[in-house]
Structures are given as structure tokens and as C-alpha cells.
Write a structure and sequence with these properties.
Elements lengths: L1 H25 L4 H29 L6 H21 L3 H4 L16 H23 L4 H28 L4 H28 L4 H24 L5 H21 L1
Helix pairs in contact: 1-6, 1-7, 2-6, 2-8, 2-9, 3-8, 5-6, 5-7, 5-8, 6-7
């Protein structure tokens, strides 16, 4: 189990760094490619959040304990929602869409906001992956694969705002590595939190699932529909859902 967890954490960290490395050298990614790839990943993550996290939480809970699942999903959504209110949206910081104003950000350093925006997307993913390793092993592998694939285009996108803000190449690379390590830390934190008590596992799985649902709906899908390529992105999302179902059946 620990070996699998280490491989999972290393895989997520390396996939994030790979995406950032591509972004550092390519600099500009065609919106059509980015939207299709993110749409595919959104479909995979949507299926993973339900099939690999929320549904197992329901199955391991008695009917009288289903409140844990509801409370967990609501808590995951609320947690990311609150964090999202005090940090800027990733796609708004990328310079692609008109910036949304956040009253609490006025006095903060712009570069710090970039890092916060990126980190808020990585930590829940790491937590979701780590928590899943306390349940079904097949589900855990499926979630790991899904998030690792999603990390590549996300890593390519998240370095662009830093470069646009004037952050030097080396500093941007170091920040990309730090963000990847934050996701790795989230994997171990999620695993040990879920390992504290099996009675809390349905709740923790549901929290992770709710957090993923929020990020998919509030960040990934709107981003893929904001550049005029919503049709290909939608088709890619459907393909991602089917791909995730086949992966889940295979593992």
C-alpha cells in the first residue's frame, strides 16, 4: 500500500512538472488544443468524482448514515467555494478572460495571487487521490490516472500567468515545482486523514468528491467554453466520461 501511494504521489508530481515544463518552453498553447484536452480531462474527473469517490462512499454507508455522504459533498463544495472567494480564478489570471474583481485581493501581491490560484486547484486533487487509497484499490488507481492526465494540460496553462506577470523563468520553474510538491503533500495528507478512522472514510471520500465537482463545474468547464471551441470541448468531455468508465471497469 505504501509503495503504491509513493508511486501515485510521484506520478502526480512528475505529470504536473512535465506539463509546466512544456508550458515554459512552448509559452503559447492554441486554445482549441487546450480546450479539447481540458474538456476530455473534465469528463474523466467528473466520472471519477462520482464513480470512484461519491458512489463508494454511499455503498460503504448504511442508509441511516447517508447523511455523511451529503454532508461530505456539501463540505467539499463549501470548502473550495470559500477558498475560491478569497483567491482569483485561474483562467482570469491567465489573461484570457476579463478579470473578475475580488475585494479581498486589492492589497495582495499579484504573484502571490497566481501561486494561490494554482495551489487551490492542486491541493484538493492530491487530497482526493490520497483519500481514495483508503478504499477500493481499483478506484484509487483510476483516480490517480485521471488526475495525472489532467495535470499535464493544467501544468501547461498555469505557468503562463506567471510569465505574463513578469516572473522570471527560473522563479516560474521553481514555483511550478513547489505547486507539484503541494499536490504530492496533499496525497499523503489525504491518505493519513482517511486512515485515522474507517468510520470517517465515507465522509472524507465525499468531501474529496465534492471538491472535485466544484472545480470541474466552476473552473474547467467554463474555461473550455470561453474561447469559441465549446462544441469540440463538449465532445471531448463525453469522450472523457466514456474513457473513465472503461478505465474503472478495467482496473
Amino acid at each position: 500500500m505504501i509503495r503504491d501511494l509513493l508511486l501515485c504521489a510521484a506520478g502526480l508530481g512528475l505529470s504536473s512538472i512535465l506539463g509546466s515544463a512544456i508550458g515554459l518552453f512552448v509559452r503559447r498553447i492554441p486554445h482549441s488544443w487546450n480546450d479539447v484536452f481540458l474538456g476530455f480531462c473534465a469528463g474523466m474527473m467528473l466520472t471519477a468524482s462520482i464513480v470512484c469517490l461519491i458512489l463508494p462512499a454511499v455503498e460503504m454507508s448504511a442508509v441511516s448514515s447517508w447523511w455523511q455522504v451529503v454532508a461530505g459533498v456539501a463540505s467539499g463544495v463549501a470548502l473550495i467555494g470559500v477558498l475560491d472567494r478569497i483567491t482569483p480564478h485561474l483562467h482570469h489570471l491567465s489573461g484570457i478572460r476579463e478579470e473578475e474583481r475580488h475585494m479581498n485581493n486589492a492589497s495582495l501581491n499579484r504573484t502571490l495571487l497566481f501561486v494561490m490560484a494554482i495551489a487551490i486547484h492542486k491541493l484538493p486533487e492530491g487530497l482526493a487521490t490520497g483519500v481514495s487509497y483508503n478504499g477500493d484499490q481499483g478506484n484509487a488507481f483510476a483516480i490517480t490516472l485521471t488526475i495525472a492526465l489532467q495535470n499535464i494540460p493544467e501544468g501547461m496553462v498555469v505557468v503562463t500567468p506567471l510569465l505574463m506577470a513578469g516572473v522570471r523563468f527560473l522563479n516560474t520553474a521553481l514555483i511550478a515545482v513547489a505547486v507539484a510538491l503541494l499536490e504530492v503533500a496533499g496525497v499523503f495528507a489525504g491518505y493519513y486523514i482517511g486512515d485515522i478512522s474507517s468510520a470517517l472514510l465515507p465522509f472524507m471520500l465525499s468531501v474529496a468528491g465534492g471538491a472535485m465537482l466544484y472545480v470541474i463545474s466552476d473552473e474547467m468547464i467554463p474555461e473550455t467554453h470561453s474561447h469559441g471551441f465549446q462544441k469540440p470541448a463538449t465532445y471531448a468531455l463525453v469522450a472523457g466520461v466514456l474513457a473513465m468508465l472503461f478505465i474503472e471497469a478495467a482496473v
